[in-house]
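>> received
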Amino acid sequence: MDFRRYAYFDPLFHEYAEFGSANIRIDSDLVHGHSTLAVQTLQKYEMVQQVGVTETVKRGNIMKNKISNTFQHFNIPARFNGAVSVVKSGKILFQEAFGYSDMPNKIANKIDTRFATASAGKVFVATGILQLIEENKLEFETSIGDILPFDLGAIDKKVTIKQLLTHTSGITDYFDESVLDDYAELWRDFPNYKIRKSLDLLPMFTDKPMLHQPGEHFQYNNAGFVLLGLVIEAITKQPFDKILRERIFPACGMNDTDYFELDKLPERCANSYIYDSKSGEYRMNIYSVPAKGAGDGGAFTTIGDIQKFWDNLLEGNLISRALLNEMLKVQTHDNDYFYGCGIWLEKTECGYFPYFEGLDPGISFISSYDLKNDICLTVVSNCGQNVWKLRQNILSTQCGHY
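>> returned
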């Protein structure tokens, strides 16, 4: 989903847009999991040796104070629910989880918690497509009408793979963001529990007229990536997520990344929550997103696995350098927003830096890579909080000091 045109779900969304370093409260029950920085702090003070009970309490107090100072240092709000990772040149500067994966039962988010990531999964599908291109099983200029074995309805059969990858296909999206502000509204007339595979989404957009001629201009489009997932399935004769499990995730060591059905979530998966302004309470998003992700997103992953994906992608372990350059090259843009092949590009004084992101009801995610300073920053929230502002604050106030 395109976060730029999406209404916020959480009452803290605007609060996070304004938070600063002052008056940040650290609640002990909102800070959980392994903290690499905390361990480094203990090592720095040479307090990792066996000590007595009194010294253990002292050590714990010192660590708590250092962690509290660190959270202020990174401008992380006390009520943030999710996880943050900052890695520079392969060294973890900060990795921590906050809040709860299960609010009623107060089960804490941890470093290895699997979070839903919404549209972030588009980059995995794009990588899978690029692998097929590298194997000469597909070309950028291949028309979808020559590959997909089903009736495309009103969709122009001459739409190419590259146009799908770059959001320039002209296909009408199944979620028209110019008409609907809330993705959850989409499922009031079409039961979300019926969406278990990419084919299930086809009736929602194939009969809609084209918005414009293929290749005419950029318009963010989820339906195009649903089709890309189906292209992978048409060529490999396997579900797209099975192909990602076999060809991308294992190659990166991403053992905690997969596509799950919401009513069959495995261990360590965080529930995602939407704030209900009427009741003043949070509710789960299970009726507001598809029951299982498709080619346009829906993967569950950890902040550690995302780091592994970046490392392997940029090292050329997933696709060739030539295709990687094509992926990370500006292919199209919409005003100040730039896009490559399945990945966003941020324009800076030092060039374009890649990032991918996702936003659904109760879900917000962004992961970016500063290629010049070799800094990878990932922020995810299972309450749909403003991870973009948090990322900006961390980058602007901290990363320049390392």
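>> The longest helix spans residues 53-73.
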